[in-house]
Amino acid sequence: MSPIEIGLISVVAIIFLIYSGVYIPIALGTVSLVSIWLMRDNFTLSLNLLKVAVGDSAMEYSFATIPLFTFMGLIVSKAGLGKDIYEVMTMRFRKVKGGIGMATVGANAVFAAVTGSSIASASVFTKVSVPQMLAQDYNPRFAVGVVAGSSVLGMIIPPSAMLIIYSFVAEQSVGDMFLAGVIPGIMLAVAYVGAIWFMGRFTPGFVGGRVVEDTEWMSRREIASKTLPTLGLITVVLGGIYTGWLTAVEAGAAGGLVALCIAVARRSMSLSTFWDALLETGHITAAILFLITAASIYSRMLGMAGLPNQLQDMLAGNEATFWVVMLLYVLLMLFLGTLLDTASIILIVVPLFLPMIEAMDLSLIWFGIITVVGAEIGLLTPPLGISCFVIKSTINDDRISLMDVFMGALPFAFVMLIALLILIQFPILSLALI
Amino acid sequence: MLKTMLNGLSGVANKMAIIANAAGTLCVLGLVVILNVDVIARGVFNAPLKGTYEIVQLSVVFIVFLQLADVVRVDRLTRSDGFLNVLHKRRPKLTANLRRIINAVSAIFMGLVAYIMFPEFLHMWETQDFFGVPGVFTAPWWPIKLVIASGCALSCVIFVLKVITAQDRPQLVRIPEHKEPTT
Amino acid sequence: QETISAVVIDGYPARSLWVQEFTDFFIPEVDRRLAETGNYVMDWQENYGGSIVKPRGVLEGIQLGLGDIGIVTTIFHSSKLPSQGLAAVTPFVSSDARAVARAIDEIAREFPTMQNEFAAQNQVYLATGVVLDSYQVFSVNELSGIADLEGLKVAGAGMNLRYLEGIEGAAGVRGGLTDFYNMLQTGLVDAAQLWPEAAATFKISEVAPYMLRTDFGAVNSKTVTVNQDYWNALPDEVKEVLQAVAIDYRDHLAGIAMDIAAASEAEYIASGGTIIEVSEEDRAAWANAMPNIALELAETLNANGEPGTEMLAAYLAKLEAAGFVGVRDWTQP
Ligand code: NA
Ligand code: NA
């Protein structure tokens, strides 16, 4: 068997194993190990790849954002801030079908300006808005789907770890990439709100939710006490990043501390809930980063099989038009997105297509936005969709299965795909602010 | 007799996982503290701490591999188990065995990682290799390799115990994770 | 005719200067020379951009045989490859990439130290790559000279953070190349140490329009190495061709680095940047206010049983012979 054949068979094997219920990092790691063994007829070599990948994949400064923003989110939700802000934000939306869903999207768009990772968004809003929606009888699938879909905004609206990774691979200015992400991010948020309205109108069963009797309007004082702590927190984190006092990692730490102070001041934090928050942060971090490590073993195995090189040769051999190239690119990202993490997808596809995009005289900034949005659809698609996993592991409720999360996220992945096609057709959406 | 031994071993392994988990949890706390101290030292006193970057890198690895065994213990390692749950209703025995096989494969994988990382630890201990910039801040490699090796070894042991006891999901309600079920 | 396969690895993307020149110069040149006799033909498989290893992982990747030939970024490994730091610990001497590349490469061949360090990692030293002419200081606000750097926060990476110890009250802030634009833009730092090509690539002129020409000097950061087991199995003819092409690659790469540096400076000015010249007196004052990091390295090497002091002296002598004398004699305390 040729390395390419082994590479392709390994993809099938991984899908089979993941569907059979094998732990996903174990499936990725084991199949990669065996694939290299078969490919090179050298078991030591496959152990060596494992050694290198496990050794350095988790050791990344920016990965510290994962525990830090997770911690902040947990403290915020344990302190009840999420509940408060939702009560205020949903006050006017109560009578709108899917109103809390819309509020979730809006809040996520704001939160996206504070976090660089969709993982943080997913874990925070799973804690903050899913319980609210379930309490109002929303369909659990819709509730988790909204959170999954809107969590993607975290890595499109700047700051964003993925925009940074792209700017490194394609040698574009990070500042330009950040600016380019603003309009597409807002556009996607608006599209989500539109989609929720549409679903509420035409598929009310999927949305769910009960009609809430008119309650008394909150007093100004009450509104202030429910919103100011959160606004203060956002000011520290957002303001910290934009004024330059803090890097994203430091903003996470400062945000965690401020959230903690708020919680203590409100007497909603005992030593044991504090410890639980730290503990859960650790569990989530370990589960996510171990998965990322395993995904990195897998993408290195593909590299050794020469799959990226083969693909490049295949594409270079054909004269292709703009839309043929772009559709191929989107399909490839969707395909890789089923199994690989966003960073791996970017690292694999961008080098493949970059020479072609340059030759076609297209903007590399625009291409970066296409890449990040396209690769992030994979966060929502099974069998490996990191955002959905985060939600599943954060929610920790056996009544909601991983399947439910994926099914709920599907309409939002579809909206993303439409938005992606619009972004491809109209580069000005990405380039207007530069 | 065998059963008592197994219970004893399982108790020890679980205790170790919980201790490692507590250490990892303290790393999360340490991360929050050191970054805040650095921000204040830099912003207010114009004197950033040296080595924050390396310490952050180090803590991320520590958090992951100190917590890993406990994540395995409480069965929160990422998986898509819809099929297993469906199968469980019809063929509980078969499902239990399937879970055993999956846990056995996982034990082998974790064991392999521990097996290849442990010599790395010994080597780094001997050579005292470090990372960082000499004169600014350096940290030795060996604690990282040790934590990865022992975290994976402990995970391997816990997977092996799951194979033997066929207890994949010790309790269905898992929060708070370290309190024993009261009923 | 025998076919020899070679897996080339680097964690940096294929568009990086040294990787691109490996593809466009090193590989065709080896193929061409082997074709002269026709005894051997190479089958190259190139894996860049993290497809097998990350930038930091090349050394280990070659050691473990994940790649046969690799481009090791030596600044990540000051513990395993201490002698590779020679150029970094001797700032203010030469901003000529060609001279520094040649001097380091000759030290690698004349002293056993560098080759021993790589041998301990199961690999064979092939060539030194210098990809930048000099670090300079890029500032957000206009500076009249180095005295204005006092009390500022300056971004850097690796050994150049230690250069700041020569400036009163200056605080080094660590960051990666891709972070610098943001750090400058947001005011996290007041200035950053970068080389002109990187400044042009990341459009630093937009956020730091003043370049202080400190001319810290060229620094070797890349080494082409070959896995020891792979090397042992290679026929002598191929070994000889690889070694000869390695020297040409060294000079070719350094030459391109100099051309690009000149073009990048022009681009910096064209996009609104201003270059501020620094007097020799200022440079000397800075150098003399620094701790002697060169002697620190020499002593570290001596303590390892390597001829550190001699290597330092020989390296500086080679640069002097090429016409570059530093503003401070780093061999003296
Ligand atoms: Na963001
Ligand atoms: Na996916």
Automatic annotation (TrEMBL), chain A:
Domain TRAP C4-dicarboxylate transport system permease DctM subunit: 12-427
Bilayer-spanning residue ranges: 12-38, 58-77, 98-122, 142-166, 178-199, 242-265, 277-301, 321-354, 366-392, 412-433
Compartmental location: Cell inner membrane
Annotated InterPro entries: DctM, TRAP_DctM
MF term (GO), any: transmembrane transporter activity
Pfam families, per the entry: DctM (PF06808)
Coiled coil: none
Gene Ontology cellular component list: plasma membrane
Keyword Signal among record annotations: no
Topology class, membrane: Multi-pass membrane protein
First and last residue of the signal peptide: none
Record keyword tRNA-binding present: no
Keywords: Cell inner membrane, Cell membrane, Membrane, Transmembrane, Transmembrane helix, Transport
Family (UniProt): Belongs to the TRAP transporter large permease family.
Function of the protein: Part of the tripartite ATP-independent periplasmic (TRAP) transport system.
Subunit structure: The complex comprises the extracytoplasmic solute receptor protein and the two transmembrane proteins.
Protein's name in the database: TRAP transporter large permease protein
Organism: Yoonia tamlensis
TrEMBL record, chain B:
Localisation per UniProt entry: Cell inner membrane; Cell membrane
Keyword Transmembrane helix: yes
Membrane topology: Multi-pass membrane protein
Main location: membrane
Keyword entries, A-Z: Cell inner membrane, Cell membrane, Membrane, Transmembrane, Transmembrane helix, Transport
Signal sequence, start to end: none
Domain Tripartite ATP-independent periplasmic transporters DctQ component: 31-165
A GO molecular-function descriptor: transmembrane transporter activity
Gene Ontology CC: plasma membrane
Listed transmembrane segments: 12-35, 101-122, 142-164
InterPro entries linked to this entry: DctQ
Subunit structure: The complex comprises the extracytoplasmic solute receptor protein and the two transmembrane proteins.
Family classification: Belongs to the TRAP transporter small permease family.
Known function: Part of the tripartite ATP-independent periplasmic (TRAP) transport system.
Protein's recorded name: TRAP transporter small permease protein
Species of the source: Yoonia tamlensis
Native organism taxonomy: Bacteria, Pseudomonadati, Pseudomonadota, Alphaproteobacteria, Rhodobacterales
